[in-house]
């Protein structure tokens, strides 16, 4: 066989995209502009490739080049995609989930502040220290969590808008509450009016913004969890294609040369096989763990957070019904509606019922069950409270609503419910952290491993094909 | 290399040209906040179309009530109330001096509250056998019509329009509308408030009187009177205009405001009773007869004497 291509070696055959000899008779370069030369480049390359493909060594060089490019491309894309995956999981743990939790905390602490301020209004004389402390803690937590939530709202315009509303209105709210306090201390009913204005601001503007922000961040968390569990199609396609091409090449070589094994290509095939098995196993384990961190962790937490906020708002309604002193039918209706959402009409459904169904076998199960018990007890205490108020015993009803020191009061039942929910939410977050951290461990060394295996495959291909090309020397 | 060099020179020239022209723009605004939306009391609104029919309506004699009768016959409204065990009274919990919740004790206090307790004392012998229901100005008539309360004692002006829906006792207090403004304000009365925002409670006679004033102010309505004080303190309204009694309670809570102008209406306070309970009207009138004998003065001296000067109970007028 003759060839216009002089087999060059040792070393890698020149990529066919390079100007292939023989170069057409040189035209004086200076006479042509660089642009025209650039435009002719693809045409020249195609002509060169077609010419060399007509000969066996040329074809072999082409195959080798293709395989090496494919191997290196697969290595780069696979490594980047695995590294991305690992980064996404790290981001979930260190960034996205804490951020969603911050948004939850903003929403929760502000709801709690509203409920606490209303309770403080019902108590007479100077404000009870425990309520004052609780309110102060709520505001401090809301501020801290808001700063955290704000640190990453820039990318999402809608989230940035909510953060803006929250950070503008929160100081206004606390100002109104303090004005209410100052008036209250002097015995002026204007204090109650300021408190109503504060509560209106909270309910009409601040809480809706907090809820919106919470929903945005929870959605982003779920999206990122989806990102971390998807199949990396491009890498899968490339690596399977590479494997197929390697096997095809070996069959082709066997036909042409009657030699069964080519050590270089076998090494490359094994390396690609290991890469496929390793990454499939690691990614499967990781996906399963991230998914369970989602379903047992963040989704469970989300359910419980929504339950806790429904409970807090119902609590605010309970006290506001008494603050309104007879004019609070709308609050009472909202209370009934919120409790229905919390535990269902029969005490076994609602958000808590759903959480109980999903928490079977999880560490949060105990907390969720006691939360249901306390919610039912609270509803009973509330019914008693309404009866007291309805029969003219306003003071008894107020006592029932705000005295947390006695076991049977609505205040005590609510406090127990809130504590159980807090514990259950914390447990859900822990489940997320455990599962997701383990998921991240499953990917340890996979990215560099993938790169090394791809390089081994490329080297194997080079050596294997070079051995065959030598036979044409 | 000459063409390349030439190209390079041309490119750098172009780059210089691009960099040189065009405005660099303004620095980024770190806080793009133009105006601030102030917090408002719930349901605060500008009322553009308030109907007339305030204290100026003279199509009837609002003072004439049914003659008194203090007996409780079996089967009467009072008898039913006695069986229930408490008197249900619609009151205010936000109007200092007349009906307000004392934040130190949690109890409702004020001139209207004292009057309501006298009615309970007459039925039960116990001034504390009362269930107070806090209602807004707008809820007074519906609360009576729905039977939510037995009587309403809540700075409730008797007007011909209201007499069509409910009944009133005899007059137990005569107030008059004035104007409350900031101490540094140059406003001398309602006539200076044309086009300015003036606050009053929803469905109150005061709101109608503001809307009827000439030149016409911008009436701003709220649920409770103390919401008006909040809006005045926050600079969201220019003035509050209502009965001098209510204004006196506001001035008492804030030394930086003043009451200006003359009374430009007469507000006749009566106790509201559901229209069908004529026996209750007569009974309440009998209670008021007794109250005028001493309890009235005692309560007035406690709450209002210092702020409004000496006064006595208005004489009753019967049909």
From TrEMBL, chain A:
Location of the region described as Disordered in the Swiss-Prot/TrEMBL record: 1-30
Positions with biased composition (Pro residues): 10-25
Membrane spanning residue stretches: 60-82, 230-248, 260-281, 442-465
UniProt keyword Kinase present: no
Keyword set, alphabetical order: Membrane, Transmembrane, Transmembrane helix
Name under which the protein is recorded: Secreted protein
Organism: Prauserella flavalba
Lineage: Bacteria, Bacillati, Actinomycetota, Actinomycetes, Pseudonocardiales
From TrEMBL, chain B:
GO biological process, one term: amino acid transport
Pfam families per the UniProt record, alphabetical: SBP_bac_3 (PF00497)
Signal peptide (residue range): 1-26
Domain Solute-binding protein family 3/N-terminal, first and last residues per copy: 86-307
Keywords: Signal, Transport
InterPro entries per record: Bact_solute-bind_prot3, Solute-binding_3/MltF_N
PROSITE patterns with a match to the protein in the record: PROKAR_LIPOPROTEIN (PS51257)
CDD domains, alphabetized: PBP2_GluB (cd13690)
GO cellular component, one term: extracellular region
Region (Disordered): 29-76
Family the entry assigns: Belongs to the bacterial solute-binding protein 3 family.
Name listed for the protein in its UniProt record: ABC transporter substrate-binding protein
Phylogenetic lineage: Bacteria, Bacillati, Actinomycetota, Actinomycetes, Pseudonocardiales
